Amino acid sequence: MKHFLDINITDPADLRQMIDHARVMKDARAGRPKGTPDDEQPLAGHMVALIFEKPSTRTRVSFDVGVRQMGGQTMVLSGNDMQLGHGETIADTARVLSRYVDLIMIRTFEEATLQEMAEYATVPVINGLTNRSHPCQIMTDIMTFEEHRGPIRGKKVTWCGDGNNVFASFAHAAGQFGFDLTFSGPPPLDPEQVFIDEARARGAKVEIERNPQKAVEGADLVVTDTWVSMHDPQSARERRHNQLRGYQVNEALMAHAKPDSLFMHCLPAHRDDEATSAVMDGPHSVIFDEAENRLHAQKAIMRWCLGV
Ligand code: CP
Ligand code: NVA
Questions:
Q1: Mean pLDDT throughout 142-169?
Q2: Among the four 133, 137, 173, 194, which has the fewest Cβ within 10 Å?
């Protein structure tokens, strides 16, 4: 069973093949209306369940459109409207859904929910974000970086802000794709050490630099994300803003990175909090290419899962 649960537990050769495949599929569609089918219809006859226990714009729409372009059908399910949200176990839900659909994508809270779904499903399961990771996003970000700047191996990526789920998948990717990663944020919002240790064990250079200006020196890519994630309590909002204000990505900070550095944000953004509009809409920014590439990267991920 080829689940796509996290970048660190997926074979690096398979990860590379998915990114390259995504670029080929993107090129093949260039200039076509979004609603037209791909020439190849590898998901014809396939039904895909997209389960959301948290809000989503990009993940929801890009998976749905991607499946349809490849000839498959989708079913978008909200966790709350399912019995899952009313006491049915994940294990039972996984076994039942596996009788109806060929592939399950789930966005949920606890990583344990994803793991239980994968353990009991008899069809592939894709991680559409948990509190701990967001692998589809970072596959997309690598595709986007390479589209603009060539191979990411050996490049320097600097993360400014919260050591959250999106950072964790960057750390997974640093180990698998061989790029350097610098984290810059306040100590209370450091990522879990295990993410850093594992990337280092795979030979990636991973550093923590509290001074954001030093952290972005020599960076080929500067990345940030929201200061308050969907799983964070709203009561933590003010404290987090106070802790993170000094890590805002603005033009003054970008001036310390390489002149041709890229800026990424997975979106949704809180403009002028974690990044200024001047940066988001400025010459370094590739945020809308990132959003578009969710579509192409996930199509490659789904095809890998299904072996089609
Ligand atoms: N970046 C991302 O996953 O966006 P959504 O929350 O809109 O899906
Ligand atoms: N860190 C954010 C990412 C949203 C796509 C969250 O988990 O809310």
A1: 98
A2: 194
229 lines ligand 2 (CB under 6 A): yes
Of ligand 1's listed atoms, the one at least distance from the Cα of 136 is 3
- Going by pLDDT thresholds of 50, 70 and 90, the confidence category of residue 213 is very high
Lookup: tokens for 111? 């990583």
- Within 6 A (CB) of ligand 1 lie 56-59, 129, 137, 266-268
Which residue's CA lies nearest to atom 2 of ligand 2? 229
Residue with tokens 């800026």: 263
Residue-level pLDDT at 184: 99
Element (H, E) at 241: helix 237-244
Note if 149 is an active site residue.
Answer: no
Report the sign of the C-alpha dihedral through residues 43, 48, 52, 55, in that order.
Answer: positive
Q: 116 in ligand 2 pocket by Cβ < 6 Å? A: no
Residue 73 is a catalytic residue: no
pLDDT recorded at residue 85 = 86
Q: Is 166 in the pocket of ligand 2 (CB under 6 A)?
A: yes
Question: Which contiguous run of DSSP H or E holds residue 141?
Answer: helix 135-149
Residue 46 confidence (pLDDT): 98
Sheet holding 73-78, edge to edge: 73-78, 47-52, 103-107, 125-127
Q: How far is the CA of 232 from the centre of ligand 2 (A)?
A: 10
Instruction: Convert the pLDDT of each residue in 8-51 to its tens digit.
Output: 999 999 999 999 999 999 999 999 999 999 999 999 999 999 99
User: What predicted TM-score, i.e. pTM, was given to this entire model?
Assistant: 0.98
- CA dist list (Å): 53 to 30, 80, 110, 115, 267: 33, 7, 10, 15, 18
Token pair recorded at residue 184: 């810059």
Residue 168 beta carbon below 6 angstroms from any ligand 2 atom: no
Token couple for 307 = 């072996």
